[in-house]
Amino acid sequence: MKNNYSQYRAMMAIARASFRSIMRSPSAVVFTLLFPLIFILVFGFINGGGIRLDVALAGESDLKNPVFDSIASMQGIHLVPGLTKAEINHNLQKGDIDAIINIQKRLADNTISYNVEVTTNMASREKGIIIRSMLEHLVDKANLRAAAMEKPMVVLSSKEIQVREYKTIDFILPGQLGFSLLSSGVFGTAFVFFNLRQTLVIKRFFATPIRKPFIVMGEAISRLVFALLGAAFLILVGYFAFGFTLIHGFATFATMLFLSALGLIVFMGFGFVVSGIAKSESTIPPLANIVTLPQFLLSGTFFGIENFPEWLQPICKVLPLTYLNNAMRLVAFEGAGLSDILVPLAIISAWGIFIYALAVKFFRWE
Amino acid sequence: MNSTPVITVKNLKKSYDKFEAVKGVSFEVYDCEIFGLLGPNGAGKTTTLEIIETLREKSSGEITVAGLNVDQHQNEIKKIIGVQLQAAGYYPSLTLTELIDLFAGLYNANVDPMEMLKQVGLEDKHKAKFKELSGGQKQRFSIATTLINQPKIVFLDEPTTGLDPQARRNLWDLIRKIRDNGTTVVITTHYMDEAEQLCDRVAVMEAGKIIALDAPDALIDQLVSTGFERKKEVKKANLEDVFIQLTGHEWREG
């Protein structure tokens, strides 16, 4: 008998078939690509474009004066035209506009002077403060000019240092990527192995000479390839469409893919455990949600974990997705190499060892 | 037909917890025959088959397949047998060509998918997905996957259950063709007409034991020699013959 049976060839046959199967499964494509992409699109368009102050002029306001021209040309000030007096007052109360400005011209002793009256609301107090200080600055400047003071006593000079702009997408994309890997790893793996078992596909494989670990590896390879293609796609869309920061270009991209692979392998371990303990197909979603939802909310997918109350922090700091997200952000934005993120890598790997120990215990072939 | 044993089963027992599914069966399957395991549901046919196929552990007994012991040579045995499971699934969204490629990889065999599908009359369906096939087509496809490694022995577990008379008869022709090409076929069924027409020898199983083993004709003759007579005189044709005459022999793809 020929003894040159290649487990590798058999494994790759499974990987290829399984990959085709994933590509034709709408849910896999939707969860790994479409959902994260939608989140990225949504957050990509909410771009932090500085502060915007909506200001209305009171109807009786004087318009032909230098003060008004200066106000209108200030950065961040957005004049809301064409409102009646009642509308203006109503909108200020609702907070739709941030301030009402009324400029009155006065004529006394043959000198023209102006009175600038500003009304803000208590609800948007911060914006009110900004508007008032902007106006104070304008008024002071005008008064100085009027006083013809050539050498001011106090001069303010300010400098702003240039930093890399930290965009919304730089925070959101790594979080979405991490979550995509988590759901693909947990849900995908759990459903696929449960179904392969249930529909006896896997039993038919047992009747061929392939060894069991190679069946699992073949399936895992296909999921890994699929997830990495998805990750590459998300990163590239972020980079080209929304200016996601890849600080060292391709090296950063490659490091992110490496992290994605590590994350996915760990998350697949959770999927194996879920598929092993699920008694029926309908118990998979709740079990998988127990794994994914807390991480979705508490691992810094949408907002940094420092926003959570003290007592939640320890939980956040245990979850593997937290470390994956942090590592991704460090790599992408701060240009960290693998040697700079050894701590998160070690914690993610520790989770991997723990979860695969459980998976081996719970995994069922039939 | 010769009588060189290609499978020998000696005193096979299988228990699940306290339930004894197979209670010591012994038989031989000869080279190039169609061997039937008959019996009602729950008689232990599938369990016996799956133990020979190395898919299940036995509790005790001795089995050799083509001279290979099932305890030591599981993988060598898998290379030379073809297995059709009672309800095996395949990736539902893959086409038949892709599935044949998959099994070619699993058996490390080089086959032309179209050639394999032609053997079971499914060449027109090569682009169809497995889930789009009818019951009979699924069974035929399942048999095609058992032939990929040019096996010495093919195991078919209730291949005709749930099929219409046309599909059944055509499957019989396919099974005979496989035997005529030099492959031993082991088949389970609970249809006696099927066993009578198809099998060279049959073993009748009941409650985990073999209670009769011989050629179908010989078993019938034995019964008749005890003075048994059917209550109703047998006509030269039965209702199924009428049905086939009326509706034709062709495959129905429903």
Q: Please describe the biggest sheet of chain A, giving its number of strands, its sense, and whether it closes into a barrel.
A: 4 strands, mixed
Helix proportion range of chain A: 55-70%
What would the average pLDDT of chain B be, to the nearest integer? Answer: 89
β-strand percent of chain A reads 5-15%
Question: What's the SSE blueprint?
Answer:
The complex is a heterodimer of chains A (366) and B (254).
Chain A: H1 7-23, H2 26-45, E1 53-57, H3 66-72, E2 77-79, H4 85-94, E3 99-108, E4 111-120, H5 125-147, H6 168-198, H7 201-206, H8 212-242, H9 250-277, H10 284-298, H11 313-316, H12 320-334, H13 342-362
Helix pairs in contact in A: 1-8, 2-6, 2-8, 6-8, 6-9, 6-10, 6-12, 8-9, 9-10, 9-12, 9-13, 12-13
Chain B: E1 5-16, E2 19-30, E3 34-38, H1 45-52, E4 60-65, E5 68-69, H2 74-80, E6 81-84, H3 96-107, H4 113-119, H5 135-146, E7 153-157, H6 165-180, E8 184-189, H7 192-198, E9 201-206, E10 209-214, H8 216-225, H9 239-247
Parallel strand pairs in B: 3-8, 3-9, 6-7, 7-8
Antiparallel strand pairs in B: 1-2, 1-4, 4-5, 9-10
Please outline what is shown here.
By secondary structure, chain A is α/β, with parallel strands linked by helices. Chain A contains 13 helices and four strands.
Brief descriptors of the model:
heterodimer, A: 366 residues, alpha/beta, D-Maltodextrin-Binding Protein, domain 2, 2 domains, 13 helices, B: 254 residues, Rossmann fold, four-stranded antiparallel sheet, 9 helices, globular
Can you tell me about this structure?
The complex is a heterodimer of chains A (366) and B (254). Chain A folds into two domains: 8-46 and 167-362, no CATH class; 53-147, D-Maltodextrin-Binding Protein, domain 2, CATH 3.40.190. Chain A has a four-stranded mixed β-sheet, with helices on both faces. By secondary structure, chain A is of the alpha/beta class. Chain A has helices at residues 7-23, 26-45, 66-72, 85-94, 125-147, 168-198, 201-206, 212-242, 250-277, 284-298, 313-316, 320-334, 342-362; strands spanning 53-57, 77-79, 99-108, 111-120. In chain B, the strands form two sheets. Chain B has a six-stranded mixed β-sheet with strand order 6-7-8-3-9-10, sandwiched between helices. Chain B is globular, with a radius of gyration of 19 Å. With 254 residues, chain B is of the alpha/beta class. Chain B has a single domain (33-50, 73-247), classed as P-loop containing nucleotide triphosphate hydrolases (Rossmann fold).
